[in-house]
Amino acid sequence: MTKPEIHENSYINREISWLQFNARVLQEASDECVPLIERLRFLGIFSNNLDEFFKVRYATVKRIVDAGKAGKSELGGIKANELLEIITQIVIKQQSESLEVLDCIHKRLEDEKIYVIDENQIDDFQHNFIKKYFIRKVSPALVTIILNDLVVLPNLKDSAAYLAVKMVMNDDKNQYALIEIPKSINRFIELPKQGDKSYIIMIDDLLRHCLGYIFNIFDYKSVSAHMIKITRDGELDFESDLSKSFIEKISDSVKHRQIGDPVRFVYDKTIDQDTLEYLMSKMGIDSTDSIIPGGRYHNRRDYMNFPSLGRTDLLYNKIEALPIKGLSLETSIFKAIEHKDYLLHAPYQTFSYIVKFLREAALDPQVKTLKITIYRLAQISHIASSLINAAINGKSVTVSIELQARFDEQANIDYAQQMEEEGINLVFGVKGLKVHSKMCVIEREEGKKLKRYGFISTGNFNESTAKIYTDYTLFTADQRILKDVNKIFSFFETNYKIFRYKHLITSPHYTKKAIFKLIDAEIQNVKNGKEGLIRLKMNSISSYNMVDKLYEASNAGVKIQMIVRGICCLIPGIKDMSENIEVISVIDKFLEHSRVYIFGNNGDPKVYISSADWMTRNIENRVEVSCPIYDEAIKQEIIENFNISWNDNVKARLLNASQENEYKVNNEEKVRSQFDMYSYYLKKLQH
Predict the structure, then answer these.
(1) Of 213, 50, 211, 245, nearest to 135 (Cα)?
(2) What is the pLDDT of residues 21-32, one digit of tens each?
(3) From which residue to which does any coiled coil extend (predicted)?
(4) How confident is the model at residue 258 (pLDDT cuts 50, 70, 90)?
(5) Do residues 522 and 531 make contact, with C-beta atoms less than 8 angstroms apart?
(6) More confident site: 265 or 85
(7) Binding residues for Mg(2+)
(8) 55-79 mean pLDDT
């Protein structure tokens, strides 16, 4: 994998660390032990990640350069203009590696009698099928732009793929055109099987085959087509028009993103130089944009949806999400959690319990209020329909919905409008803060009192991602915790007041101070001759304040174990700085998403589940919640889960100064944590 430049300071640059996380995703696409079609899908994830990286992180660094600033303090000691160049060089190498991986996978597919063919490999039988398919389905969906010097090039859509067409006319002049690859048609078209052989053609190559039909009104000698893609700045810009609602402003801003400033231009490196120069001048591509020579195909994120062709042997075995012992989908969840807390660990256990809780709240005549935070809703959301159902049944429903959940704004906007129409009280967060916490509280009339029930989660209340993201959700009727949850909803309504919380750790006001206090307690334990232990699981750590505090704990002798999926600006294992810190990253079938903090506390561990990573935005610029686990059995379950992940020696990579993503290998019995986690929950059901 690509080795980045390491700078002589205490931190790995955030952007470089992120690119090395994406290199771990590319490792999964390279891994011969991963089922073949899953490898293609990891290649799609790698490409999709890269698109979002350029829209957000590269665009942010580019804005620093455009503002004439160096940005060294924000960027871990690297000047912004130098970082842009480093990023481009790493990405060019990773793109080259990804093309090699794709070629390898295509050869392996052929061993399985699956052939991905291009326009030069089409036989007569396939030609007739393609011709009919083009006329019937593709041609009506095409947007073709004829280019000339007199017409201003329309804004090309962010991350859409285009075929750049060059026609050499009979008078030897060049005529250029662009064909937008239609998103309404599956990128991969299954051709009729021939015996036991399966054939697939990408729509890109189908279009190349059909150029004669598209441009039959032109008198040309030759025609060629090469793919290009432009990525635009993904920042949302807001209007100050007071007559527009917040929903309207967000919606307009999402649409405007399609014409944001370009930050990356990717092209087929075999394109003619005159065509490339013509397009770059027309599009206003300049030297501060990342210009990436690529392969024949772009928008490889579409490989996430590569057809399975009925070949279940080339896919991961599907797991059946398990029930939670003692909690039933057929009886009242409220009655169950009245007596004890329950923990849901998705996707190993079924997400249906969350939907069941909300459905029960919507129907129960004794439920008076329902409050919930929403960050990313599924395209078809049973969560949203349950909330609407509750409002229709006369409950007082409050939904704090985050309309700025990046790249998922549209689904949230659509559901927010539906909820508003049904009389749900919508709260659009707090000015200057994203609401990233995941929590719900209901109030139920029992006798003459209102009793609270609810849940707190590390993950989004999203049915789609719950099948592939690992997350914890705590169901509880603990009035201490739920009183704090209720206070957070009060903060949404009156955010000029800063509330105090006895049990929850909340951002932006208390997380840093509370975590530092917990770390200091472990440092003090070491000073008192006792063990100091901190175990952390999170998606990313990039806050230099948090990194420095962990360095301080390490130097004091506290043993620190960290499982970090993505960005890790901390450098472990450095003498006199971080020699007591070990960090691994697990990339496998599921996306590790849960956040867990465990503090040894001299043998009586303090355990928290959280919505917050240790990034500056999570600690200072978002509403986040870390929830203590008081139930001893659940506390032990989370610690055992951490042990399983920590002992992974199949899919765990070592994160260290070299940033080479070496696998954690030892001679002990093989532990593949995600597979072993499922076995763990199967065994719990049997006892």
Answers:
(1) 213
(2) 999 999 999 999
(3) none
(4) very low
(5) no
(6) 85
(7) 376, 406
(8) 78
Percent of the chain at pLDDT above 90? 69
436 part of the active site: yes
pLDDT recorded at residue 58: 81
What does DSSP say about strands 367-374 and 114-117: parallel, antiparallel, or unpaired? Answer: unpaired
Residue with tokens 């919606």: 251
> Strands 581-586 and 469-476: what pairing?
unpaired
The 3-state secondary structure of 235-258 reads CCCCCCCCCCCHHHHHHHHHHHHC
Residue 239 has pLDDT above 50, yes or no: no
DSSP letter at 568 equals B
Spatial separation of the C-alpha atoms in residues 54 and 96, rounded to whole Å: 17
Amino acid in position 159? S
How many Cβ atoms from other residues are within 10 Å of residue 320's Cβ? 7
Q: Which residues fall within 8 angstroms of residue 248, CB to CB, at 6 or more apart?
A: none
Region 29-41 average pLDDT: 96
Which residue shows structure tokens 């208390």? 510
Strand 606-610 relative to strand 505-507, pairing = unpaired
**Single-letter residue type at 199:** Y
Residue positions forming the annotated binding site for ATP? 49, 469, 565, 593
- pLDDT on residue 33: 94
Kindly report the pTM of this predicted structure. Answer: 0.87
- Give me the catalytic one of 345, 382, 436, 687: 436
Nearest to residue 493, comparing CAs of 623, 381, 308, 363?
623
